[in-house]
Amino acid sequence: MNNELQYAGEFNLAECKLHTIKNPVIDISQEVLEINIYEDIERGGIVGNMLIVDTHSLVTVLPIVGQEKISIKIKTPGFNEENSIIDFTDDHMFVVTKLALRSELSKGAQTYQLDFSSPELLTNNRITISKSYTDNISAMVEDILTNERYIGTTKKLFTEPTQGVRKIIIPNTQPFNFIQRLASQAISSKSQSPHYLFYEDADGFHFRTLQDLYEQPSLGMFHHGENIAKDTTNFEPKPQILVDLKRILQYELHNGNDMFINGRSGMLASTNIAHDIYSKNYVKTKYDYFDEFETNKRISNTSNPKYSEDGKLEKYFTARTFVHPISTTGGNDANYSGNIAANKRDETFFADRVSRILEMQKGISITMTISGNTAMRVGKTLSIDLPVVGVDHDETKIDKYLSGSFLVQKLRHQFIKTTKTHLVHMQITKDCVETLI
């Protein structure tokens, strides 16, 4: 096996085996034409598929019925750190969920697609939880994920500690659905941020805030066209390979600032009514995008709003109204035990969380393709330089609004066996601009 990177997009398929129910383990690395692995910052599990050319009628002889497991291990030559390898072997194997697209290729040969997913995703689909908790939310999430009666995962957990102790009842709910509900109520004890996300990548499960993700080291600067500056990253392969690894092969603006969606969704302005079921009264608060812009960390240190404050967006507080139940006794929040910052109770952070998550989903977003490496993960940050289009065809001039820091929102690893090429297709998003509008 080659341990030195020869070209951008090279990969080594160290293992690709089909583990059947009753028959021996079958090495299918020679039968595989293509492997796709999908990660999504809004999904609590990894899914994928592989295209197979079968000349031994394995689908009938074994047979393949959808209860099999698949072990996959892929690495980029020269990337030797533990978190730079895609390793789903041993206790972390994928499970086959579907046999699809089966067709005859020629006499004695057929092709079909095997869809697979993380075993935790399949377990989540099969069970529900009915239980009461009195604990902090991060501890609840860890229990749901590791308890053998529920998800029972042995993968690594990356959980950001939450603030306070909650009293919560789970009423016959699927585990991941309940974790997403917990994410909407959690407040970070580190940053007092309510912007929690729950997802899985190739390293394990994450329950973390956007702000915690923003503090990670960047994957580096990626460039399109010929506007490639010198990169001082400590990297062993030849300089041209480094340039090719950081080159954006193609890109497309995926989402823009849609004023219809942003207005009626409450991202720009909203009213939140917190109804106190103990005292039988309510508190009405207004959320304003500009007033709250610097409340929590943005992806860029030189962050500016994506809209102009001269647009008088604060006039549209009634565009979206949220009604949120709370309970207070003697000035304390009865939903909590322990220290909860007074300005971070449910009635104040709810609208902020809704706005920031919508901003991530519907804000500035770009889809792009690069030459792949197995260290790429969803939830990481990176920077891009995009040229200004149509200005004297000068690709050295940078688009000051679309360039800058981004968060990897969705990612697909595509391994093409016939050309021995690894591509990474990403959807990246940002919640600010580096230049004032």
Q: Count helical runs.
A: 8
User: How many domains is the backbone divided into?
Assistant: 4
Give start-end ranges of low-pLDDT stretches.
Answer: 230-238, 337-344
Name the CATH class of the largest domain: Mainly Beta
| Structural class category | alpha+beta
Q: Quick one: CATH superfamily of the largest domain? A: Trypsin-like serine proteases
Measured as a percent range, the helix fraction is 10-25%
Share of residues in strands: 35-45%
Radius of gyration, in Å, reads 24 Å
CATH architecture of the largest domain: Beta Barrel
Question: Strands across the major sheet, in which order?
Answer: 14-15-22-25-24-23
Return the average pLDDT rounded to an integer. Answer: 86
CATH topology of the largest domain: Thrombin, subunit H
